[in-house]
# Entry
Amino acid sequence: MKFLHLADLHLGKKVNGFRLIEDQRYILKQVLETLDQEKIDCVLLAGDIYDSAYPPESAVELLSFFITELVNRSCKAVIIGGNHDSLERLGFASDVLAHSGIHFVTSLEKALEPVVFHDDFGSYNVWALPYFNASSFNLSLDIKVHTSQEALDEIVKRIQAKAEFSDASQNILMAHLFVTHQSASPESSDSERLVLGTLDNVEARSFEGFDYVALGHLHKPQKIARDTIRYSGSPLMYSFSELASPKRMIVVKLEDQSLQLNEIALKPLYRMQELSGSLDEIVALVPQMDEEARLAYTRVTLTDELEPLDALETLKSYFPHLMILRYDNARTRAYSENFELHHESIQKDYFELFSEFFELQNGQAMSDEQAALAKKLYTSIREDEI
# Structure
């Protein structure tokens, strides 16, 4: 039986002012093409289906389109909620949809019962865990825990005590969690909503006994501890921190107690790119660029010491999908190095502090004339206050 592992669609997401609904439609059509080409039996969607608990109408319509296309293909699906989703809203009409082979698992109570599939080679149990933490676990089940690790250990213990979890079956676990291996953290990116601290972390050791673990939550595709514990990553780049992590889907083939994995690349409607240099240098590159590069979602870092007043308008005329413009010069580097005021600043007088502030903002010290004017203005202000 063939499964396709996806996660973190974030339908309805907006990145740096650009709403990506058409990019998401484009990528889901690629997924549908892959279902046909690979003859996929079931899609595993491991959470964060929407980008927010209150998705826009366009996001709901896009999910409806995707689910309808799955049903038209007689392709099954198991879908769990993530930390961005409203589990209650995502689970609307789940009992009805289950009759068409589309299984939304949005509660821990449902997670303790597998979604079971059969083919000529055997049976396959999919144990689907929607996003949870210690607090939501305590509200759902009849035991009190203090960490997500304790909650996961209890869930796995109950699953593996079930009659369905047997050597005669192959078992897939789906989860939307932050998974570490021997306390080493996985690769995260700027587009994720992560919790500070370690209370929500869980260890990969908890997944012993499962043939494959389909994870969601982190946007960079990666494996944890072993080849069969995988984050598929998001199907689109949602931050420039993901530039070095090409997007892909994972085909999981289970057959006669064996397992094969195959990664399939995804091509976005518009890619992301970074450009760096002076404004003149970047403009000079444009004639050499193809349409894909000109239409890419672009972050530009200008190195001009004298910041051009019309830089934003100029760049937008060449790159209509310009997302971010920033500067790397003496002024910005000084600001970065001196962002936090040191304790000893309290001991400095007003002129020392203003002189440092001026240099921080402008990348150079005040001239004698500017210093004299600053002292004169300060004296005048103080006299007015008195």
Observations:
- The CA atoms of residues 128 and 174 lie 5 Å apart.
- The chain has a mean pLDDT of 89.
- The radius of gyration is 27 Å.
- The chain has 13 helices and 19 strands.
